[in-house]
């Protein structure tokens, strides 16, 4: 297996995942030309796509080519056994539902930050990811709460490198997403969902302060 070979060839590597190829009928029909155009432009400019996590918690590079990575996709990620002796998945990500959105980014980036070597995407093998297209219908308030709260949990991990900038950028991103979600799903459900998330954040901070006393 490609991942097994990666761990064997790179003893310092603590986590690895295959190249992800996104498969979506809508993407093939509507965005294929633009993706190819961007790829040619990046190549001409010498730009190389990588999997990065911004201090705000935003991540990019899902379909990045082989090389170092700051996060791994849940559809293809593996870690050395000793990682789980000291690190676990954050169960708070399931606060608003059984689906722990962004658990792959949150966990793998924590592994990246705690290690002296980057995560790796090997040059051999890939995985075809049939992503679920974003719902165009109405979503409930708990789904919206999960989006905002889980984004906050990822920001907590990523912002250790730049605490102030990470929090400022996170607030700006969340404000933009609130507006776009309000237009798409309705203001009332977006307001209720975000209120649930922010109340949970307040409760978490109160609990952390009590633990620190």
Structure at a glance:
By secondary structure, the protein is mainly α. It has helices at 2-9, 25-30, 32-45, 83-86, 103-114, 141-158, 163-185, 187-212; strands spanning 15-16, 19-23, 52-53, 59-60, 67-69, 78-79, 119-121, 126-130.
Key descriptive features of the protein:
two-stranded parallel ribbon, single chain, 8 strands, two-stranded antiparallel sheet, about 210 residues, mainly alpha
Provide an overview of this structure.
This protein has about 210 residues and is mainly alpha-helical. The protein has one domain. The chain is about 50% helix and about 10% strand. The protein contains 8 helices and 8 strands, in the order H-E-E-H-H-E-E-E-E-H-H-E-E-H-H-H. The chain has helices at about 1-10, 25-30, 30-45, 85, 105-115, 140-160, 165-185, 185-210; strands at about 15, 20-25, 50-55, 60, 65-70, 80, 120, 125-130. The strands form 4 sheets. It has a two-stranded antiparallel sheet. A two-stranded parallel sheet has the order 2-8. A two-stranded antiparallel sheet has the order 3-4. Strand 3 and strand 4 (about 60) form a beta hairpin. Helix 5 (about 105-115) packs parallel to helix 6 (about 140-160) and helix 7 (about 165-185) packs antiparallel against helix 8. It is globular, with a radius of gyration of 19 Å.
